[in-house]
Amino acid sequence: MSELTSQSLVKLCKSIKEKKVSSTEVTKAFIERSEKSKTLNAYITTDFENALTKAKQFDEKPNLDLKLPGIPIAVKDLFCTKNVKTTAGSKILQSFTPTYESTVTDNLWNAGGILLGKLNCDEFAMGSSNETSYYGNVQNPIDENLVPGGSSGGSASAVAAQLTPITIGTDTGGSIRQPASFTGTVGLKPTYGSCSRYGIVAFASSLDQAGPMSQNVEDCALLHEVISTFDKKDSTSINFKRNNYLQELTKNIKGKKIGIPKEYRVEGMPKEIEDLWQKGIDHIKDCGAEVVDISLPHTSYALPTYYIVAPAEASSNLARYDGVKYGFRAEGKNLIDMYEKTRSEGFGAEVQRRIMIGTYVLSSGYYDAYYLKAQKVRKLIKNDFDEAYKQVDAILTPSTPSSAFKIGEKKDDPVSMYLNDIFTVPVNLAGLPGISIPAGHDAKGYPLGLQIIGKAFDEQNILNIAYAMEEKIGFKNNITDWWIK
Ligand code: GLN
Description:
Elements: H1 9-17, H2 23-35, E1 43-46, H3 48-60, E2 72-76, H4 103-110, E3 114-119, H5 153-160, E4 167-171, H6 177-183, E5 186-189, E6 209-214, H7 217-227, E7 257-261, H8 271-286, E8 290-294, H9 302-317, H10 335-346, H11 349-362, H12 367-388, E9 394-398, H13 414-418, H14 425-429, E10 434-441, E11 447-454, H15 459-473
Parallel strand pairs: 2-3, 7-8, 7-9
Antiparallel strand pairs: 1-3, 4-6, 5-6, 5-10, 9-11, 10-11
Helix pairs in contact: 2-3, 5-6, 7-15, 8-15, 9-11, 9-12
The structure holds glutamine.
């Protein structure tokens, strides 16, 4: 393992600022390791030559006041990057090169970051295993037979395998937190409205949020600080006072009240997850926080609600891919035939399933029965959290109901795939922030994560709790570099 690629983001920034190492050296190290790691299939597109040019430019005129001084970063291929192909994991966007930059990635480059490439993901971020990607599945660096989770599977794999010091993903129902949990990494889904959605390929607009993924909590705090900005270009971006998340990070969580929701003890939950949760509760108490039993009564409705709201919004968002405006086009006898062929050849099975469900629940006669009803239940789920937060400062739950599963194991069973997000989806429906931190291993030695859910805009608080717990847990990832030949 190269010494440089195993360093945390915070350390790398320090070394560059102290001129102990150059941006070119760091960038080269990550490129070399990425090139040796092709079997993981973490990248869809690499931009290594440009990255090296930019690193050299940085070193010639280094601006050491920047928060990410000359740091190479690969990002999920759902963020539009100017002049760099952006596929969203779909065939329909295989030849789409944006003419604009997403605000979140723009923030990275303005802070001194350098684009390494675009990371694999489930098609239009629909999936929990990265197996819906048109560009093939991604391997989990923990074990070659395991999925890395999804939809930000390439991102999680790349961070865990040290192909990039940090990355950004998106989370509509769990796509940052679940893959973080499966790979032993940290992933934060910020409050809805905290990170701009401008230039992110839309899946379900009322749920989508970008967020940081990293090796540890400090790196996550620093990256969140860089990407969370108010943006006029996103009408749902919120102008609130953001913290200096890294500077204000503290392990002192004495007296904090942490809720344990009884409804998250779902039927059939493996004992390992129960035990992990209990250990987490013990750690929280050790940190001087107080644990309070709470109830979130509408939890069991979250998944069915999500699978109405998300496909409804997706079906509307994906209407724009018609073979005319973007990317792929199939030949057709006439305009309608061209639309039909383009969409049936350009979209994969899972995306087509969502479009059909979404169109159905929005159709006349069914809108009230499904979509409107789902929106009402969504409000009840949000009310549950509001009620709970009258008593507690944050909530602790497992991140996922199991550890990473085998490639192919759930591919043909969409419902069992959807169940992966049982603990993460309520957070998106309520627009709240949630962070997953690695918290232990199962009997097979695969990582397991715990989730800390916060009040809206209270990212600092959940980062602090995560920071305190991280120290108590002392997690070590069992990664052996098996894929490097
Ligand atoms: N796995 C969920 C889905 O397929 C969530 C995906 C996401 O958060 N982008 O919808």
